[in-house]
Amino acid sequence: MRGKAARAAGGSSSGSAGWNELAHTCGGSVPGAGGRLSSYDWLPTRETRHANVETTYEGRNMSAHYNPYKKYTRVWIPDPETVWRAAEISRDFKQGESVLHLCLEDGTPLEYPLGPAGNPMPFLRNPDILVGENDLTALSYLHEPAVLHNLRVRFLESNHIYTYCGIVLVAINPYEELQIYGEEVINAYSGRNMGDMDPHIFAVAEEAYKQMARDERNQSIIVSGESGAGKTVSAKYAMRFFATVGGSANDTNVEEKVLASSPIMEAIGNAKTTRNDNSSRFGKYIEIGFDRSYHIIGANMRTYLLEKSRVVFQAEDERNYHIFYQLCASASLPELRDLGLASAEDFAYTSAGENIFIEGVNDANELDRTRRAFRLLGIKDASQIVVFRVLAAILHLGNVQICAQRDGESCHVSSDDEHLAHFCRLLGLELPQMEHWLCHRKLATASETYVKNMSAERAANARDALAKHIYARVFDWIVAHINLALRASSERRSFIGVLDIYGFETFEVNSFEQFCINYANEKLQQQFNSHVFKLEQEEYMKEQIPWTLIDFHDNQPCIDLIEARLGVLDLLDEECKVPKGTDQNWAQKLYKRHSSNAHFQKPRMSNSAFVILHFADQVAYECAGFLEKNRDTVYDEQINILKASKLQLVADLFATEDGGPKSSRVNVRPAKSTPRPPNKEHRKSVGLQFRSSLHLLMETLNATTPHYVRCIKPNDDKQAFSFDSGRAVQQLRACGVLETIRISAAGYPSRWTYVDFFSRYRVLMRKSDVSCPDKKSVCQTLLATLIKEGDMFQLGKSKIFFRAGQVAYLEKLRADKFRAACMVIQKTVRGWLQRLRYRKIRKSAILLQRYGRGYLARRYAEYLRLTRATVVCQKNYRMARERRAFLQLRRATVTIQAFTRGMFTRRIFQEFVLHHKALVIQRCVRGWLQRVRYRRMRRAAVVLQCAFRRSRAQRRFRTLKTEAPVARRLTKLNAGMENKIVQLQIKMDDQGKEYREQNEQLLRANTSLGTELSRVQQQLQHLQQTRSQQGGATAAAQLTTLRAELEALSKELEGARAHESQTEERHRTEKLELTQRVAELEEENALLKSQKEELNQKIKQQSKRAQEDVGSALLRAEMDAERRRYQNLLKEYSALEQRYDNLKEEVSLAKFQPGHHRSSSNQSSLESDSNYTSISTSEAGDADDVLQLVEEVGADKAAMDIGIFVKLQKRVRDLEQERKRLQASLDKMDEVAKNKDSVDAAVDAAVAAAAASLTEEAAADLAYNNLKREELELENRQLKEHLEELRRSVGREAPRDGYHVLMSQLKAANEELDARKEEVVMLKTQLVSAAPPTHQQVLETESGERVDAVATLPSDRDQALTLYRQVCQSNQLMEHELQSQARQHGQEVDALRAEMETLKADVEKKQEVLNYATSLSPQALLEYSVQLEITRLTDDNLDLKELVEKLEKNERKLKKQLRIYMKKVQELQASRGAGAGGHRHPKSDLGRHVTLQRKEKDFEGMLEYDREDEPLLIQMLVTDMRPSMLSGTVPCLPAYILFMCVRHADYVNDDGKVESLLTATINAVKRVLKRNEDFETTSFWLANTSRLLHCLKQYSGDEAFVVQNTAKQNEHCLKNFDLTEYRQVLSDLSIQIYQQLVRIAEAAIQPMIVSAMLESESIPSLAGVKPAGYRNRSSSVDQDGGQGTPSGGYTLQALIRQLSLFDGIMREHGLDPEIAGQVVRQLFHCVNAVTLNNILLRKDVCSWSTGMQLRYNTSQMEEWLRANKLYQTGAAQTLCPIIQIAQLLQVKKKTSEDADAICSLCTALNSQQIVKILNLYTPLNEFEERVTVAFIRNIQKQLQEREASEAQEGPVAKEASQLLVDTKQTLPLLFPYAPSSLGLETLHIPASLGLHFLVRV
Q1: CA of 1592: how far to CAs of 343, 1540, 1875, in Å?
Q2: Which end of the chain lies in a sparser environment, N or C, as judged by fewer CB atoms within 10 Å?
Q3: In angstroms, rounded to a whole number, what is the distance separating the alpha carbons of residues 1673 and 543?
């Protein structure tokens, strides 16, 4: 039966009809119909063959009677062993002959019979240049032997398992793991067109993914083939591609779950067969869902026709499903022991095939893999165990023995059958019921129900049916849960379906399963045929090619035979419904019904079989078992028992079979109740279910765009890379590949675009046609000249369509043209070589003559040189001898003179020293005498001054005392008067304000009234004019109204004026009254002042009299006591305040704080002012270091270091002792505080008593002093509270924190106090000396001198107060010193006591050790002594190490302090030197001096800003900054500005400001880069971030970074902060920005690489174009991209321009040259990786011309590196692999010497890559030769030897064994330190940046 499809129009000419008929006798293969030349073998290789061949075919007339079967033509003939055999025609064939004379490849002659009684004309062979093509449709001759030979060559010689055949991908199973499925391969195929790369399953998957996104249409990938062909693996790799390319957008890991379903389905659905170790025994269709962004969101799986019969039966050397063997292999696991499993050999269901193992497969490991997949899909371990229980129960059910009774009609199961017990226990069933219903069945009639016995055979079948049914239910449950786990989380936009279904199967015995499989393949083949013809029709219509119908094989009649009404399936279902139906009866019905069908046959020798003629082959089916398998009968009683299972999952498995309630018990007694109707779903036949699901599948496939993958099994022995031609042809016929070839050959199989045709065959054109811009017209003209028959080609819109054989003819013409050109070239080259040889000989003769004459001349010259050299030697020797004698004499003379002069000089020096010493002694004595005299005179002067000042102070004191009462009273009176004056003044102001407001209101009213009056007057005038014009009563009325209004307004105006006059009068009156009142107050004030002056005079007089009566002795005593108390309090307050600050700072430092660390400001001041160091701080720091090491490394790892452990133990003991000492110190401090409180109370009482005896003025002064003292006491109590809080915090915290803090701070405080006692005393003494002389007199009095109280009493009140305060301070200081000494003494006593306790404990411990040692044996004593000695040495060693570490730390600390001090000293000297001549007053205060000095300083390179301006600063410098805004400025300006701000924060010692600024900057840069992912912005911030990092290093002050700094830059180093951690953060940020920059650049250049490096014609007319297959015919529009450039492609210049753009941007932004070089090197690595991977995956680019183009392109890239001074970056070395590939493509590949050269040349390529390229090497014309298999094997052997030697020398890198290069590999990154020579003080900030709030410092 034949159908019709589209066929290209144009009939054959009448002259060629005979050859067409002859050619089509092989079933339309068209070997030579209309063709002219069939093979390149027609081009003779020997000189004798050139005579009969024309050198040119240009313009040749195609004869209608042209004979293609001429001598030397190669053909294919049938062969019983190899299917097809190659031969060569040895004599021209003439039409009408019955024999074709052939010569086989081994030289054997053969007469091949032809004609009706013989064979048809043989198929013509393709040219060698087309052998091994990626696409079978690219072959010039399309027929079965050409297809088979092409697949064989690709599979065996090139090891290519994938080949295109139109829209079909042919995949041959290699039976070997190939390294072509890695992620690098997926990345290489992702985004590429299908015809651009070599055939691959990933290419098909990418095409489906691309069409889904482009056309918004669902796709399907149909993978078919027979068992063992690799269907499951192909489907798995397709899903892996989708999972990688379309990975989920969120963290749901849907793609991992999709891949995880494969091991589960393989375990429960795959089994070992005779043809495949992992054969899928079911069909599945997986729909992978995608969202709108084309990310995987879920999947769904549908299964078809599970082979349930395999559960109970396996053929020889086959296995059951893998899951059973996995459970048996893992039976020893604890969680599986309860299943009662043993070896698989012990179970009937797993040992039927007699082979339970698969070579190379570990079933136990496979179970682990399956369980991991279960967990990934969300199936919990408990559910897994239940599933395993059900599967184990199936195995036990198979071992249940059913014993037959004697009558043969009944049977029973033994009551002690352990397997039945296991079965019931595992499934939670009741043993008696299952035992009963395994041997009985229930029969239900209309009225009664009977229980009937079953025979043993029928019971065994029921048992097996139950096992199959249980397994099928478990299988469906697992599939349902997989679908539940893969369910889409959101709405599915589209999907791609992957159909993994069984191919056409035919065995010796074919049953119901093979029938269903072949039925499904018939449906799929029908869908495939319709799709192929649809594509052909669309192609012809798109190109506007006239077309007619083509005959094709239509398999619809065969499908109707199976599924139509009363077809095979209908008759089978009908027979299954008959109660006594048998397979024999069904067979007879088939014979009777379909015997006349062309696709149905009855075997001659059998009455129980039938034959169906499928599209692939005819298959004989055995009828036995069809009915039973179609019924799939399971008794309801057994199902009901399973429904009543105690296990919920088992009950749920069978609860879905009907909607009735579950029954916990099964009633086995007969009953007369109405029988329950059978479940329709359960009773539906298997064939009907399969047909329904198959129809649903076909509807799904028809609604999608299909992509076909046909898997071929190369041999039945599972041998790697072994090709059985017979088996391959059988599968090619079955899978429809040959049918596709036949359909393609019937039309125009060869199709060329105009551009490719012009590029390939321009050698056949005239010179004028080559330069013509219209390539389409040129191609039409050429074809009209070369091919006269119009039916042989058709011209489309963008392509040229050729019949089979025409491309071979054109190739022959092209080869002849090249051959003629080669002859001309050879002639010219040979003549040039001969001329070159003559010139070389002539040149050699002249050269010999010249050398001979030169030799003689050189000999004579040598004689002359020797003679002259002798004379020169004699002269020089004599001169040297005389000079040596002279020099010796002169040295002796000089020595004598030196010793003599030294003696006289030393004598003079000694005399000078003695004279100088005498002068020094005299100077010292005279100075001492003058100082003694000066002190005596000064002491006398001081005494006189004190007496005089005392008398003057007394007089002043008496005056003030007299005036004090009167002054206070006058002050009170004046205060009252002043308040009244102020109130009156306020009242006057209020009235004046009110007056002004009223005036303003009157003015506004007058203005408004005047305006209204003018308006009324205007209206009046207007009305008068109107009345004069019109007249009448209306105008008169209006005039009257207006006059009335005018009068009213006049009255209102007069009233307002009257009110205004009244207001002015009232205001005038009030003002006059206030003036009089003020005058009266002034008079009263003057009177009070006069009274005050009188009172003052009286007070002075009274004070003089009262002063004489005051007792000065008591006042002085009280003042002395108060002075001492005040000094003690002040000193105590200062000490406590300092101690509190130290403790607070130490606590803050003990805790970890992120960010930068700096030393305490107080501690820094202490260290800078004192030369004393504290060892305790470093000790505590060592302990903290150890503890921090334990925290970082971990306790387990730290425990391995015994040194650290012993150190920690020792530190714990020390901390415990320190805690005790600290507690004692705190207690003593509490006692001291209490004593001070009591002293304060006594002082208060004394002060109150003294105040009672003093006058009113003295009492006021004492009150003021008491108030100051109370304030000091309050502050003292607050400090005590802070100290108590600190002590409580110490008690709460661990000893490591609190004890360390208090101990270190108390020790530091005590040491600092001890070190500064003398300094404080000296400072206080100087302070007192700076006061009036009375202070000095007081100090002398305190030191022991007795002075009369009345004589020393101060005469002035201010001097008395000053004296009093100073004496109090001095007393307080002395008291504090005494208390400090007492505390120190107490601490020393406590320390001695603690040391005594420690020594006692040590003595006790040693006593215990001694007692223990005396009880040991000599051997044990020796070992114990050695152990003790080791412990002691270890402790000593640790102590020494600690001491060394402390000393090293102190040394580093002192060195750093010394550097700081040196800088301070230099700055101070510079400031003093600069300010020495500029100040007239050297005694001016320090603040004024510093201020003047700072005004004279230059800009220090710092920028000051307010804290609230920080967000604006970040916004202007980072967030809103654009690289274009800084054009023409200093590169990296934002980095410099930010660092200058950091410098100022360091200068003012503001750590919060530094931390906030740097953190905000880093976060802002991250946000900007996340928002703007472009190369310019990323490069800009990489440059600024790296520059900021360099600035932090350059100005850090570290020695490693300041070597290249100038003196000014060293002055600008940071003073207070260590920003090491921020440097690390900026370094990490720079790395992230660098990676982002590289990622952006790679994304920009990656689409250019392949086109620029491999496809564009950098050298014009070099590359050739080969015939393209179907995959290269994707474009139907002529897009001329220029000569040698593909449409829409990129040239090398475009790639170089892009790289230049990147380099220019990086240079403009000031990026470090080293970093820019690394970016370029990374980009060149990407170019190399992408180019290399494409070469390894594309056969069309592995040619000599591509190697030449590639070498030229790489040289251009290297030139670009040199031109831009980037060659030294190492970027050129990354191109070594593709350079070596270019050389490999160009070198000779024939002899062993060539192999050695290749091995020594390709050092950057591994063996896999070299062998792959040699296999891919494809000649583009006949002048190139293919690489032989022997040569490749030789290369491979040498490379293996090289790798073996390298492996012996050292480990081989992983990359050395990979085929493809990782395109995402990041080369090692290094940020070198690059300091800037730019001075910060010279930096200019443009005003356009808007940073006006920054202040230059």
Answers
A1: 72, 10, 10
A2: N
A3: 11
Calpha distance 825→827 (Å, rounded): 5
pLDDT of residue 1305: 54
Q: Which of 247, 163, 1208 is nearest to 735 (CA)?
A: 163
Cβ neighbourhood burial of 1552 (10 Å; 0-12, 13-18, 19+): exposed
Point out the least confidently predicted range of 396-400, 513-517, 604-608, 1082-1086: 1082-1086
Q: What is the pLDDT of residue 298?
A: 86
The one-letter amino acid at 1790: K
- Using CA atoms, how far residue 337 sits from 341, 418, 423, 474, in Å, is 7, 16, 14, 21
620-653: per-residue pLDDT in tens? 999 988 888 888 778 888 888 888 888 888 888 8
Please state the separation of Cα 1276 from the chain's center in Å: 59
> Which amino acid, residue 446?
A
State pLDDT tens for residues 98-118.
888 999 988 889 888 887 766
Residues 1021, 1011: Cα–Cα separation, whole Å: 15
Distance of CA 1871 to the CA centre of its chain: 19
What are the phi and psi torsion angles at 45 (to 5°)?
A: -100, -15
> Which residues neighbour 526 within 8 Å (Cβ) at sequence distance 6 or greater?
554, 555, 556, 559
Distance between CA atoms of residues 520 and 561, nearest Å: 13
Worst-scoring range by mean pLDDT, 65-79, 309-323, 1746-1760? 65-79
Q: What is the 3-state secondary structure (H, E, C) of 936-1001?
A: HHHHHHHHHHHHHHHHHHHHHHHHHHHHHHHHHHHHHHHHHHHHHHHHHHHHHHHHHHHHHHHHHH
Strand order in the sheet with 123-124: 109-113, 99-104, 83-89, 74-79, 123-124
The partner residues of 85 in beta bridges, in order of sequence, read 77
> Which range is least confidently modeled, 170-174, 179-183, 706-710, 1497-1501?
1497-1501
Residue 857 binned pLDDT confidence (cut-offs 50, 70, 90): very high
pLDDT in tens, 611-625: 999 887 889 999 988
From CA 1590, how far away is CA 1599, in angstroms rounded?
14
CA distance 1219 to 1230: 17
8-state DSSP, 1667: P
603 Cβ partners below 8 Å, 6+ apart?
609, 610, 611, 620
The string of DSSP letters for 1509-1555 reads GHHHHHIIIIIT--GGGGTTS-TTHHHHHHHHHHHHHHHTT-HHHHH
CB burial class (10 A; 0-12, 13-18, 19+) of residue 714? Answer: buried
**By mean pLDDT, which of 174-188, 445-459, 960-974, 1549-1563 is the weakest?**
960-974
Band (pLDDT 50/70/90 cuts) for residue 1674 is very low
CA atoms within 13 A on the CB side of 1036: 3
329-338, 682-691, 825-834, range with the lowest pLDDT: 682-691
Q: 39 and 125 in contact (C-beta within 8 Å)?
A: yes
Task: With a cut of 80, say whether residue 463 has pLDDT above it.
Answer: yes
Residue with tokens 């209306």: 1034
DSSP class per residue in 148-168: HHHHHHHHHTS---EEEETTE
Q: Could you tell me which of 1734, 1811, 1739 has the C-alpha nearest to residue 135?
A: 1739
DSSP labels, 292-319: TT--EEEEEEEEE---GGGGT---TT--
Burial of 1387 per CB tally in 10 Å (0-12, 13-18, 19+): middle
Q: Which tokens belong to 891? A: 């040295």
Q: Residues 825-849: what's their mean pLDDT?
A: 93
Rounded Cα–Cα distance for residues 143 and 743 (Å): 10
Work out the percent of the chain whose per-residue pLDDT is above 90.
20
Q: Which tokens go with 106?
A: 């081994």
- Round to whole Å and give the CA distance between 1359 and 957: 9
In this structure, are strands 168-172 and 705-712 parallel, antiparallel, or unpaired? parallel
